[in-house]
Specification:
By secondary structure, the protein is α/β, with parallel strands linked by helices. The protein has helices at about 10-20, 30-45, 50-70, 70-75, 85-100, 100-130, 135-140, 150-170, 195-215, 220-240, 270-280, 305-315, 380, 455-470, 515-520, 525-545; strands at about 250-255, 290, 320-335, 340-355, 360-365, 405-410, 415-420, 440-445, 475-480, 485, 495, 505-510. The strands form 2 sheets. It has a 6-stranded mixed beta sheet. A 6-stranded mixed beta sheet has the order 6-7-8-9-10-11, with helices on one face. Strand 8, helix 14 (about 455-470) and strand 9 (about 475-480) form a beta-alpha-beta unit. Helix 2 (about 30-45) packs antiparallel against helix 3. The chain is globular and about 75 Å long.
Length: about 550
Amino acid sequence: MKDIPARFPKLTALLAGFAAATGFEPLKLWPITLACFALLILLIEQAPDRRSAFLRGWLFGVGHFTLGLNWIAHAFTFQDAMPHWFGYGAVVLLSLYLAFYPGLATLAARWLYHLQNNVFLRRHWNETSDSRQPSPAVRTGLLPPQEHATLPFTLLFAACWLASEYLRATVFTGFAWNPLGVTLLPTGMAIASTLIGTYGLGALAILASGALLLALRRQFRPAAALITPLIALTLWGNLSPAPPTPAGAPKIRVVQPNIGQDEKYSPELEQAHFQTLATLSGTPRPAPRLIFWPEAAIPAYLDMEPDWRARLAALLGPGDLLMTGATKVYFKQVEKDGVPENALAGANNSLFVVNAQARLLGRYDKSHLVPYGEYLPMRQILQPLGLSRLVPGAVDFWPGPGPQSLALPATLGRPPLRMGVQICYEIIFSGQVVDEANRPDFLFNPSNDAWFGSWGPVQHLAQARLRALEEGIPIIRSTPTGISAVVDARGHILGSIGHHRAGFLDTALPPALPPTIFARFGNLLPFAFAALLVLACIPLARLRGSR
């Protein structure tokens, strides 16, 4: 196959990035994603210099994030303090920033590729040439046009993409939404996340794209070298079911009340909302149950309002436990007209465990907060400009201490359990969801996806499935409007409640697997994989230099 240079490379990169986002939920067109990344590799190879390489990667990212994050615009329709149309501008502005990371990956891959070429081609020139000046290919680090170097460049690009996604998930508190590896969930190849995590899985997607480009160039031997281990991973993933749920496993009920964001904070509907939650929770049964309600399910300060605790306890049987989202608030003393009074100082977005005796058995405070959602960065500057956070309230939420496991006591024959909690957005951060010193038996992910339109909830669930795979731990999700689900330790959905539907799920708690290799070593493994990809280019560069 002869390469046809793109006539409009910048526009091609932008459109390819846009199309690549169709591999995520809800479209799941992952072959298109792989084809678009193959086109990106070609565009970077054809870039005349590093600046062009960065620009093409950045434009690819702009298109990629603009489509994939379109659901963010929907969140602004629930905040009257800011114009609703600003949501579309927010998507574009965020995409312009996030695109820096794909641009950084293409730039770094191009630089590393040229660095290796310079080292080994100069060595070869010094050993074989009597000329005083190296050839243009040596001076620029470029190979002659007929000698394609797709295999080594793909290896470097995969390593750089992995590093760029990790940076995107950590810099400025991080925004890890829609890592590339999520697109491989339907393929079975996602089993690799038990070894190299989500960021390593994204590198595998780049390798698959490189294999596609090599095959189109009729370079079948290097294409086979890339694709064979990926096929093996796919077969392994499809032949590796989760262990069956044992008899006598704890019974759980997941509740989805279908309460929209436009109704959630209405005082007039407070009693109706509670009644919906109570009805869907069902009447107590002889076997004890774990009952799961969504994030911020009730407008109560449970540690300060015994009447609310009594209302919840009345719904429970003797051995039942209720896990519900609510708010923990803090006050400070201020003076108003010379009279001291208490004023709200801050709050935690929390998950409480309530038993049938109206006692609070545990609390988890969300640690990884959503900027502009749960707190307003640079409030003293942005608030006078008319900006506010999306969640109603006059003060910011405060972060909790991080992942921890809550002890759920043994009741009525049910063994004691350890429950990890990740509230809403926290579940998207690979390697940051489990208390490693006190590994839980399962993770509970109470969420409020009512903000997220039709694309956000399915994307959120997909990322939760990857956390289950990575850690070998089942995940339970309860959301107000969907998608609530029970996910086993291999990332399979055992049951779910669809979007904008009220209902409940009754099932037994799936078992956890022994800690995966990724669970033991975390994100050290993706970076070890990236280093291996870079090192694999050295013998390839020696071969090219000896030609």
